[in-house]
Specification:
Elements: E1 4-8, H1 12-24, E2 29-33, H2 36-48, E3 55-58, H3 74-84, E4 89-94, H4 99-107, E5 113-116, H5 121-133, E6 138-139, H6 144-155
Parallel strand pairs: 1-2, 1-3, 3-4, 4-5, 5-6
Helix pairs in contact: 2-3, 4-6
Length: 157
């Protein structure tokens, strides 16, 4: 099982829900941050201390506020994290539903799982977590048909 997980989510209620799900799954250490810069700093510090994170769960969209941030999106965070810890598992937890965006997350940015914020997302989060633990990948069942259609449309001659 994943022992050390970092959650990058700027909405408190979603953050708490993810933490609860991870606790139910037996995760020993789940930390959370509201900002992408903080997530990158925590991952970097953990690597320096020899206590790396096993999994990053991140949203794609982060609202701007009074805190100036260098990294302002989940995609930018994913890219930065992959530079310093290429083997970290990444689960995106977002409301994004456009197949092209989700397909690009897997193929260009190397994420391992995508769970859409929607009905049954807590169950899908658990399923994704277990699938990642087994070495697989995961896409929420409610978005999977659109992804397959997008892939077949884009691969047609």
């Amino acid at each position: 099982m994943f022992n050390k997980v970092l959650i990058a989510e700027d909405h408190e209620i979603a953050n708490l829900s993810v933490q609860r799900t991870l606790k139910d799954l037996g995760v020993e250490e789940a930390k959370y941050v509201y900002y992408c810069d903080d997530a990158l700093a925590w991952i970097s510090r953990a690597l320096q201390e020899g206590r790396h994170y096993d999994l990053l769960i991140t949203d794609l969209s982060f609202e701007e506020d009074h805190h100036k941030q260098r990294i302002t999106s989940g995609i930018d965070l994913i890219q930065a994290v992959k530079v310093i810890q290429p083997d970290i598992k990444i689960l995106v937890f977002s409301g994004e539903s456009r197949p092209a965006v989700i397909d690009r997350l897997f193929n260009k940015y190397g994420i391992d799982a995508y769970v859409r914020k929607a009905r049954h997302d807590a169950q899908h989060l658990k399923e994704a977590f277990l699938q990642l633990h087994k070495g697989g990948s995961y896409i929420s069942p409610d978005i999977k048909p659109q992804i397959k259609e997008h892939q077949s449309t884009n691969s047609a001659p």
